[in-house]
Amino acid sequence: MSEVALLQLIGLSVVGLGIVILLFIKAMFVRVLGFVAMVLGSFSLVALSVPQMASLPPAIESFDIASVKTPDDLASIGQKIFFSKGQCALCHSIGPSESARCPDLAGVGAKLAPEFIYESLTDPQSYIYLDFRHEGLPEEYPARMPYINKNPIALSKPEIFSVIAFLQKMSGEPISIKVEDVMDMGQEEKSVKMASLKDGAL
Fold first, then answer.
1. Which of 74, 89, 99, 128 is most buried, with most CB under 10 Å away?
2. Sign of the CA dihedral with 154 first, then 159, 160, and 163 last
């Protein structure tokens, strides 16, 4: 018997017990308890009748920076990271949105230098962005920006600069991130990881 079927059986038993109490017991307090049991059992049966779907995190894709040949390739990888591993679209919109929990990123690649965007992603509390798009005092956005270079997101430096390249392309700007620089960053990170693994083995 599956777990859901077992819970449904328990819910039915509780509803049945409530009905028996209401029909055959005269004490008011016990009848109230029977009614409560019947209502709770009914709610649980309704809840368990809703089809169950597993809630899984988005699939994490692996990106081969070595396959990048042009800045457009870099921006294409950045777009995939933005909507998957980076989890940026959970809070940010690209274009006006009433439900956005963080600033709209439309045109941000044209307004901000890549170095500033990088700092905003890796040290997000350096600058606090307030919402001035309405009358009165500015309001802080409800969601706090995580450090995307640390767990649980933990984007590598090449992945972060790929996202910045995507933001520049999306803003209609020429992509200023050089593919060679991103490749060098990837090599540096590999060297640092190898060195730390060697130190750990000693």
1. 74
2. negative
H helix or E strand, kind and range, residue 160 = helix 157-170
Kindly give the interhelix angle for 179-201 and 157-170, rounded to the nearest 10 degrees.
160
Q: What is the DSSP string of 14-82?
A: HHHHHHHHHHH---HHHHHHHHHHHHHHHHHHHHHHSPP----PPPPPP--GGG--SHHHHHHHHHHHH
Q: Which pTM was predicted?
A: 0.62
Integer CA distances (angstroms), 152 to 87, 117, 121, 131, in order: 10, 20, 14, 27
First CA to last CA distance, the chain = 52
Q: How many helices (H) and strands (E) does the chain have?
A: 7, 2
Distance from CA of residue 4 to its chain's centroid?
28
Give the pLDDT confidence score for residue 201 in this predicted structure: 53
pLDDT at 47: 86
Least confident window among 64-73, 139-148, 166-175: 139-148
Integer Cα distance of 68 and 115 in angstroms: 21
Contacts for 95 with CB less than 8 Å, ≥ 6 apart: 104, 106
Is residue 104 predicted with pLDDT exceeding 90? no
- Which range has the top average pLDDT, 45-49, 78-82, 88-92, 133-137? 78-82
